[in-house]
Specification:
Number of strands: 7
Oligomer: single chain
Helix content: 10-25%
Strand content: 25-35%
Distance between the termini: 37 Å
CATH topology of one domain: Rossmann fold
CATH superfamily of one domain: Vaccinia Virus protein VP39
Number of helices: 3
């Protein structure tokens, strides 16, 4: 089963981040739906800890707890779909360090307070997509 509102989430990103900018998905897992819609518009990379990722995507193996920061540098947006709570702090620290915005689409109502890493935080309800957006000062 796919992610409800994945197309709306991709539409939101497409409407708010400039074509050609760097976008990174963390923890792509087995749901490349959003990545497939973004890959041709952005300098796009997706990561996960598994040795192999989805075909036809710029996939790089990376452990968010011991990240290769060069994968994230220059990103305008780092996003993650349903990341476990224990990963969210690590993802936020990376986004903060490289100056990227962070979009987290959590499981259900799950939320970790990551606002200490960012200048702005809000819950976004965009069509069928509900997510948390943390923005860095630019």
């Amino acid at each position: 089963m796919g992610i409800i509102g994945y197309d709306d989430l991709a539409e939101y990103i497409l409407g708010h981040y400039s074509p050609g900018s760097r976008v990174v998905e963390v923890g792509i897992g087995r749901h490349p739906d959003i990545a497939e819609l973004l890959k041709n518009t952005y300098d796009f990379t997706c990561t996960d800890v598994t040795p192999e990722g989805p075909e036809n995507l710029n996939y790089v193996r990376d452990d968010i707890f011991r990240p290769d920061l060069s994968l994230y540098e220059g990103a305008s947006l780092i996003y993650s779909i349903r990341p476990p709570v224990d990963m969210q702090d690590s993802i936020a620290m990376i986004a903060n360090r490289v100056g990227a915005d962070l979009l987290i689409r959590p499981f259900s109502s799950e939320k970790t307070d990551l606002s200490r890493y960012f200048s702005e935080f809000r819950c976004v309800n965009y069509k069928r997509a509900v997510f948390f957006l943390y923005r860095n000062k630019k």
